[in-house]
Structures are given as C-alpha cells and as structure tokens.
Design goal:
The chain has 396 residues and is of the alpha/beta class. 36% of the residues lie in helices and 16% in strands. The protein has 13 helices and 16 strands. It starts with a strand and ends with a strand. The relative contact order is 0.17.
C-alpha cells in the first residue's frame, strides 16, 4: 500500500477547521484534524506546499518513521504550525491503520483500560446566579464535572463568557488581576453551597496570572475542592510552577499551549502539575500524545486532553480513543458543536450520563463529507486579545 494523494480542506461550519484526507492506492483513506485556531491558513500552506509532496508514494503503515521524517527532516522543527500540520497527517495514518486492520483505534493502542471516559464541559454566566442556573441545566443532562467561569466586574469582556468575535479583527478584552482574584474565590464558595459537594468543579485561569497571584488564588480555592485549576501560568518558564506548588494543596492542570513532549519533561520530573492537557491536534497527533501519556504515568500525572469547539470532531474522537486506552486517564474536556458541524462530520464522541465513549467502527470512526465541507468556505477569524486598563497587552 502506498500514499497516492493527500487533500487539505479548509471548512467553516460555524468554526474554521483544517481537515486532512490521506488516500492510498488500495482505496483505503484516513482523515485527520490540522486546525490551529486563528492561524488555519498557515497550517494549510505548510501541508500543501511543504509536507504533502514528501509523502506521496510512502507506505502509510510506517507511522513512526513518517512522524520522525516530518518532524526531524525539516531541520527547523517544532512549533504550533508545523506540529499541527504533522498532527493532521498522523491522525489520518492511524485511521488508515485501523481501517486496514478492521479495528477501532483504541484496540491498536493496547485495548481498553476503561469502558468510558469522565468528561467536563464549560459553564459561564454574567453573575453567580446565572452560572448556577446554567450549571443546573447541565447537571440535568448528566454532567458530573463542570468548568466554571464568570464575568469579572469592572472588566470589558471575560474569557469563557464573551464571544470570540469571529470573522473580524480580534475582539479586545480589558482585564485586571485585582477584581479577578476577588471574584473567583467568592464564586466557588457560592457554588459549593448552591450545588453541593458531589459535583466536580474546575476553573481555567487561561495563563493570565503571575506566579504569586496564582499561588494566592490556589490557596483561596483550596476549601472548595476543585478537580483541578487549569493553566494558571504562562507556559514558557516551567520553574515558575515551583512558586505555585509551595504550600498549595490544589491539583494543577497545564499544557494547552505545548507543542511537544519535551515541554512536559521538567514539569513531570519535578511533579509540579497533576494533569497534562495537551491538544492532540497541536502536539503532532496520536503518536506524540501516547508518548506523553506514558511519560506522565511514571510521575502519577493524569491526562486531560484539550477538547474545545475550535478543533474538529475528528480530533475529539482521537482524544477519546486515547482516553479509553491509557492507564493514567484523568478527565476529558468536551463541547457542544454548532449545528452546521453535524452537516459536515459523520460521527462524534458518544455522551451518556457524564461520560464519553466511541463506536466500534474501525480507525477513528469518524469521517467528513467533502462536498458539504466545501459548501462552508473559510472565514477569517481571530481569538480575542486582552489588554490591561493602562493599555498594555495582557495574556488572553
């Protein structure tokens, strides 16, 4: 079997996605997700102009060799654009391997370690009461874990609450740490009273705080028993997590902006985090994610793969297959897709009573309709940008 053609399709069924379809001379094909929100065209061009020509005629069964060839063969290796492009190819190759074997992906990864994967989704509101009311709606749907955000008084727009303002120049939020640090502990105190102790609660800082600010927040949140505090610090300086870890008994999740296993090593070795939450679409795909999970297992660190609506259902399916296979699974982020996505994609992870599973279809168990995908053309869109009240740029 040889790779005969690779298609790169950009579609916007409510959100922009970069889809990869690797075709073979035996008629079997595989699909992958190469979406990098806000920089979709950069990934598509990297694939079309640089990576695809290298792969025509290669054996799709040689996944690891192809992975190394793309990653190391460029010399200028790594970074989110190239690793997202690589992820799209990697997923498609695993999909081919599963279809060729007649087995679902999790079976190729060693089989199931569990029958279902605990998941969480996002809840937000303009005030505490609206957050509570929205949470109750999702509890009624069966969710046992919810990530909670709320509008911050005195700030213009709040991450997790305001819209992304797609298809225009970036929406500019206004944010300050003072009101944020005063608001969030009160929110969780309120929710524990209103929602009880059984519901698992999570919160995403989105890498906005300085180390000492994150430590203050973590200490204040300890009494409310969060499942984890997500992305409390910027990813560049890993030793900053030592400040946060000192005297704070709260689980920490990190990794959304990572693009390789090497970014995880010092955090793992020094046990500075408890959950690794890389995005499978941004770290080189299934092959790299499995290696990261295996490395994390040594240090009692669990997985919590990134699962927002700005990666396609193909990547979500890959994540759940991994969740079922790895021994150190923790929790899976999930989302509700816009109605247009259901016109393009054939399958999604199966939600039931707070858990996710996948079908027994071979490979990833997901496909997309090329004709329908092309009916939803790309629309330029950006993630928001945050600034402080003095006008300086703040991490969004």
């Amino acid at each position: 079997m040889k790779i005969s053609n690779i298609k790169v399709i950009i579609t916007c069924p409510g959100r922009n996605y970069v889809l990869v379809k690797v075709e073979t001379d035996e008629g079997i094909y595989g699909v992958g997700d190469a979406t990098l929100n806000g920089r979709e065209l950069a990934v598509a061009k990297a694939l079309e102009e640089h990576i695809v020509p290298l792969l025509i005629g290669k054996d799709p069964d040689q996944i690891e060799d192809i992975w190394q060839y793309i990653f190391r063969g460029t010399y200028w290796r790594g970074g989110p654009v190239l690793m997202t492009a690589l992820a799209g190819i990697d997923m498609a190759l695993w999909d081919i391997k599963g279809k060729r074997a007649g087995l679902p992906l999790y079976s190729l990864l060693g089989g199931k370690s569990r029958n279902k994967a605990l998941c969480y989704t996002h809840i937000a509101g303009k005030d505490f009461a609206e957050v509570r009311d929205n949470a109750l709606k999702y509890i009624e749907k069966g969710y046992k874990a919810l990530r909670i955000q709320v509008a911050i008084p005195g700030c213009k727009g709040t991450y997790g609450v305001s819209e992304d303002n797609a298809n225009s120049l970036p929406f500019v939020e206004e944010w300050e740490p003072g009101p944020y640090l005063r608001t969030i502990p009160k929110l969780f105190e309120y929710l524990r009273v209103e929602l009880g102790d059984e519901l698992e609660l999570l919160h995403d800082v989105h890498e906005r705080l300085a180390p000492i600010e994150a430590k203050i927040l973590a200490k204040q949140l300890e009494p409310y028993r969060l499942f984890f505090l997500e992305d409390p610090l910027r990813p560049e300086h890993k030793d900053s997590f030592r400040v946060l870890r000192q005297d704070c008994a709260i689980p920490i999740a990190m990794g959304e902006l990572f693009s390789s296993k090497w970014e995880c090593v010092s955090l793992f070795e020094n046990q500075l985090i408890d959950f690794i939450r890389c995005d499978i679409s941004h770290i080189g795909g299934i092959s790299e994610a499995k290696k990261i999970a295996n490395l994390a297992e040594i240090y009692y660190i669990r997985t919590a793969w990134h699962g927002p609506s700005d990666i396609s259902p193909i990547a979500h399916m890959a994540s759940v297959h991994l969740d079922l296979a790895v021994t150190n699974f923790g929790i899976q982020e999930t989302c509700e897709f816009l109605p247009e996505a259901y016109e393009v994609f054939t399958d999604f992870p199966i939600f039931e009573d707070g858990y996710l599973t996948v079908s027994e279809k071979p490979g990833l168990g997901c496909d997309f309709n090329e004709k329908t995908a092309k009916a939803f053309p790309y629309k330029r869109g950006y993630l928001p940008v945050a600034r402080r009240k003095d006008g300086s740029v703040q991490d969004w």
